[in-house]
Amino acid sequence: MDKKIKLGTKEYLEVAQKALDKSIRLIAKSVNKGLANEKDDIAMSFSLMVGPILDTSHSLVVLSSMGKMRDCYSLSRIIFDHVLNLGYFGAKGEDTVKKALQHYHQKSFRDLDRKIEIKDLGFGIGLKDIDKAPISEKLREALDYFTSNKGFEIRSWTGDNVFKKIEIIRDSYGKEAGMMMIINLFYIYRHSSEIIHGTLFGSLFARGMTKPESEQPKDEKELEEFHRTRISFVLICTILMNYVTFQIINEHYHRQKELDELADLIKDFRITLYE
């Protein structure tokens, strides 16, 4: 990127949008050429993660053109979590993919008969006598695995938190991939969580009011510049996430030529990945 282009300007945002769009197209073209044809569980899990990563990345390009900062943060969290799980699947191997499939299997079955009760409030929908229906041994094992000793559904499919997952990804795929995840954790994860959960911090952050008072936007023009700056950060972080996605895929299914092209794209953007 030309250093004369200032962060927070329309020009900077447009360059970031074009770079993200290029990364989406490059990955999609490469993945469509063969990943879906692989027959192992890792390739299957990668394919199921890559689709949403690219689709939501495209949505980011669209929403960034409209200045939708809050929505961009929310979508970037979706991308981050998909890349996190893609790396986790690749690092931990087929047993972890099978565990995730167990989680999907039993959760789909539970969806056939669900209800929510809070004090005198209740709502539910389900198939009649589903609890009496015969089920396969495979489903029974999945239900048992994701049911606590007290009979409640265990909702998490993995006991590892986001920090542990990044540690595992770093150990398997190197410091560069780990640092890109850390950068996203630092710039995206915290603020997107506040926005998604509707906290006052999230609402005030979107107005630039969590900055020191002297740096807060004083009018709509400065607020627009703040939004463009933050949206540009989100797009840059997403470009990094797309690179990590492809770096992980390349470790399992060789695509070095396209990975080098993505690396050049990042270099052109003048991003310092780590010291």
Task: Walk me through what this model shows.
Pfam families: DUF5677 (PF18928). InterPro entries: DUF5677. By secondary structure, this protein is mainly alpha-helical. It has 2 domains: 10-93 and 159-268, Fumarase C, Chain A, domain 2 (Up-down Bundle), CATH 1.20.200; 98-145, no CATH class. 67% of the residues lie in helices and 4% in strands. The protein has 10 helices and 2 strands, in the order H-H-H-H-E-E-H-H-H-H-H-H. The protein has helices at 10-32, 41-65, 69-92, 94-110, 137-145, 162-173, 175-196, 200-206, 220-252, 256-268, and strands spanning 113-118, 121-126. The chain has a two-stranded antiparallel sheet with strand order 1-2. It is globular, with a radius of gyration of 21 Å.
Q: Note the overall shape.
A: globular
Beta strand % = under 5%
Radius of gyration: 21 Å
Total of domains = 2
Q: What would the average pLDDT be, to the nearest integer? A: 91
**H and E order:** HHHHEEHHHHHH
The count of DSSP E runs of length 2 or more, i.e. the number of strands, is: 2
Q: Between the first and last Cα atoms, what is the distance in angstroms?
A: 20 Å
Helix content: 55-70%
Kindly provide the name of the CATH class of the largest domain: Mainly Alpha
- The tally of helices reads 10
Counting copies of identical and different chains, the oligomeric state is single chain
Poorly predicted regions: none
